[in-house]
Amino acid sequence: SPTRKRGGGAEALTGITMAALGAYRCIECNGEAAELYRDYQRGVLRISICKSCQKPVDKYIEYDPVIILINAVLCKAQAYRHILFNTKINIHGKLCVFCLLCEAYLRWLQLQDSSQNTDPDDLIRYAKEWDFYRMFGIASLEQTSFFIGIFITLWWMTPEMLKRKSDFILLLKALLLSTYGKLLLIPAVIWEHDYTPLCLAFIKVFVLISNSQAIRVTLNLNRILPWFAIIFGLILENGVVCLFQKMGWDV
Fold first, then answer.
1. What is the distance between the alpha carbons of residues 214 and 230, in angstroms, rounded to a whole number?
2. Residue 105's pLDDT is what?
3. Which residues pair with 37 in a beta bridge?
4. CA distance 130 to 138
5. 25: three-class secondary structure by DSSP
6. Is the separation of the CB atoms in 136 and 101 below 8 Å?
7. What 3-state class would DSSP assign to 235?
């Protein structure tokens, strides 16, 4: 709640964004912080200073969203901490579904290209529509198995980091948000045949790098452990792919 100091013509001091200790994180050292800034009225703001590293808790609160996005694309840990800990973004679910739809559509196009049937009527049949739903389901299962592999590895190697349900939820949210690189699939959807396997491989690598940074920032780990988790996640994901292929499904 606001606190006021009177006397000597002093300006009222208003404390805003006050929260319980640990509600926010310093983007530099990952230390806990009770507030991001204070408003000294008349439009005068002062960013809070971290008690651990003596640097501004979150300099990005003054930055334009475009600058923050650019820093996130560059995989800067400070930008990730700002987004994950100091903002209230709830688009991770919608973002994940949208990316899966783009991925499913690309796979569906590739399936149509590999088909020898050129009858245009065949493209609008229910079977072709079902192929798209099947591709969406396969892409969803692959991503789910990838995340499960990551969680299993991290829980096995650092059980103290994932003691509470909130820790799992935060990590899942970070992983979902870090798949934003799949939005690069949109140009491939728009121009259809203008994309190349090299482009898709580049998108895959970029998403994996973003996943690694999200794990590192969320759990405050070194650079090596997140990659172990990602490698195991890829192994489990490829295992699911091999299972679908043995079932005779085109993936």
1. 11
2. 85
3. 47
4. 12
5. strand
6. yes
7. helix
| Span 56-64, average pLDDT | 90
Averaged pLDDT for residues 38-49 = 78
Say which residues have a Cβ less than 8 Å from residue 91's Cβ, sequence separation at least 6.
177
Question: Can you tell me whether residue 38 is helix, strand or coil?
Answer: strand
- Region of residue 119 (phi > 0: left; psi between -120 and 50: alpha; otherwise: beta): beta
Element (H, E) at 46: strand 45-47
Given a cut of 90, is residue 231 above it in pLDDT?
Answer: yes
> What span, in angstroms and rounded, lies between the C-alpha atoms of 201 and 185?
11
CA atoms of 73 and 203, how far apart (whole Å): 12
Sign of the alpha-carbon torsion through 67, 69, 72, 78: positive
Q: Letter for the amino acid at 175?
A: L
Residue reference for tokens 């995989």: 75
CA–CA dist 146, 152 (Å, integer): 10
